[in-house]
Backbone:
């Protein structure tokens, strides 16, 4: 229903069938084994024999009716941001009173006990939450009420005790650049990031990286969709080639302050402008060679800066948009549904619903939008299998959340804003990259619109390239579907990084 905003997806599917007692392994016979999860950057223990059912979710799965599972995950967001996405899956409007505070060698956990009723079945849920440095850690176990007490002691509490961030690999020795932790201000928001500086004295050309939609950390970490960290790879490559790179946590994410949920793309553009202003204060950065690289919504923000900020020397747009949000979302929803195996009829129905909702938004009929979304979501949920309905938690709460998303300030700005208007005022060099298999920002829709706008601007130095096999993340893809991201190698399609690096190097001067 909206442009995909990368955020935590808990995938805590609450099954509704009950495993029979004779199928369950007695708690006394459970053996815990250490494991690492590179997707979430965590380590801990898992019961032997439990299998991965979803990212960060492990099911006992002794038969199709076994509801027992253990989830261990992490999110680059605060508890205030994570909890609202978790509550509907538990059928809650708010967290209950905590049951305990559990101190381990790494975390202070707050634990909760929730009984979830679905399809006349009660599922007992253990939940633990901890927050450190703007990152939220989650452990959840669900089982039947009869097994709860035994598995609480045999699985849940040991999982809390063993849970820890995955030790980072030691930095590669003799890197040709240094990484400096920096902060800079945008009004009352403090943004924290990493500046990678090539070796050597002199004034370095620099690039500011601007993330896609949703709360993102400085690496643009995309767990649980994939282990790919696009901005970490880009910063490493460009800095090896002599280009300084500043990447930062979005407002309200990681070590940055502020409220991400209440901000729009226009607000995020001021954050990127503050990053440029910070680089202008440094005596090791060339003030005439500061560019921006934006991914997805970040490409849209690059258009805003290209039209308005005289300190932007060049732009790299990765799957950046060039049409208004309404047109983009209508085609995006069609492509997403079809890529995931949906029918043309389902895609047409979704487009008809969105058109109706957008018309109501244009008329400022928010209450009518809420009613439409609520009724549509309930109808859609009725067509889902029982286990998928249960995974959504309280359906009314879920429907209300969908309506709130559609009427948010971010969505209203996104729908109304046409980046083509700003691209048509952008005269600095532009490299625009699209994926031929991108189903989120479709190349056939956006590349021609971008070229028309840049021609209108009289831009004498632009290049638009579509990489045929690339998806929205510029992985080498088969279908481009979002569900495929995690099945592909956590790397860019061949040639992507050299294309970006060579284009920038042809337009900057490295210090001697």
Residues:
């Amino acid at each position: 229903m909206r442009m995909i905003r990368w955020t935590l997806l808990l995938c805590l599917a609450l099954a509704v069938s009950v495993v029979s007692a004779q199928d369950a392994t007695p708690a006394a016979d459970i053996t815990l084994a250490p494991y690492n999860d590179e997707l979430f950057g965590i380590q801990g223990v898992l019961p032997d024999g439990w299998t991965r059912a979803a990212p960060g979710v492990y099911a006992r799965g002794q038969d199709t009716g076994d509801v027992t599972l253990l989830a261990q995950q992490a999110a680059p967001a605060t508890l205030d941001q994570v909890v609202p996405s978790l509550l509907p899956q538990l059928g809650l409007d708010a967290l209950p009173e905590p049951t305990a505070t559990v101190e381990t060698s790494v975390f202070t956990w707050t634990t909760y006990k929730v009984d979830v009723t679905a399809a006349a079945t009660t599922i007992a849920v253990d939940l633990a939450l901890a927050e450190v440095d703007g990152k939220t850690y989650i452990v959840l176990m669900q089982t039947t009420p009869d097994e709860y007490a035994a598995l609480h002691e045999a699985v849940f509490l040991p999982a809390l005790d063993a849970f820890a961030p995955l030790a980072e690999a030691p930095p590669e020795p003799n890197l040709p650049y240094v990484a400096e932790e920096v902060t800079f201000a945008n009004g009352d928001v403090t943004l924290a990031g990493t500046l990678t500086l090539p070796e050597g004295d002199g004034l370095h050309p620099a690039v500011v990286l601007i993330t896609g939609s949703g709360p993102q950390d400085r690496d643009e970490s995309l767990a649980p969709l994939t282990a790919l960290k696009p901005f970490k790879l880009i910063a490493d490559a460009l800095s090896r080639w002599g280009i300084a790179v500043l990447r930062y946590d979005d407002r309200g994410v990681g070590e940055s302050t502020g409220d991400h949920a209440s901000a729009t793309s226009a607000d995020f553009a001021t954050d990127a402008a503050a990053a440029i202003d910070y680089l202008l204060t440094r005596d090791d950065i060339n003030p005439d060679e500061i560019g921006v690289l934006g991914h997805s919504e970040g490409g849209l923000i690059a258009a805003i800066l290209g039209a308005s900020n005289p300190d932007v020397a060049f732009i790299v747009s990765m799957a950046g948009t060039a049409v208004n949000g309404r047109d983009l979302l209508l085609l995006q929803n069609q492509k997403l549904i079809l890529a995931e195996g949906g029918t043309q009829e389902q895609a047409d129905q979704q487009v008809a619903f969105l058109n109706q909702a957008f018309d109501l938004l244009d008329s400022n009929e928010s209450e009518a939008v809420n009613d439409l979304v609520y009724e549509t979501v309930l109808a859609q949920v009725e067509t889902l299998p029982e286990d998928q309905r249960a995974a959504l938690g309280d359906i009314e709460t879920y429907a209300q959340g969908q309506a709130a998303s559609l009427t948010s300030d971010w969505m209203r700005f996104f729908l109304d804003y046409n980046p083509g208007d700003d691209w048509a005022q952008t005269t600095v060099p532009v490299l625009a990259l699209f994926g031929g298999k991108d189903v989120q920002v479709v190349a056939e829709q956006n590349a021609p619109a971008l070229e028309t706008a840049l021609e209108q601007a009289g831009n004498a130095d632009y290049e638009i390239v579509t990489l045929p096999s690339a998806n929205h993340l510029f992985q080498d893809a088969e279908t481009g579907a979002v569900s495929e991201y995690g099945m592909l190698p956590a790397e860019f399609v061949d040639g992507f990084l050299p294309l970006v690096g060579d284009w920038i190097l042809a337009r900057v001067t490295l210090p001697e």
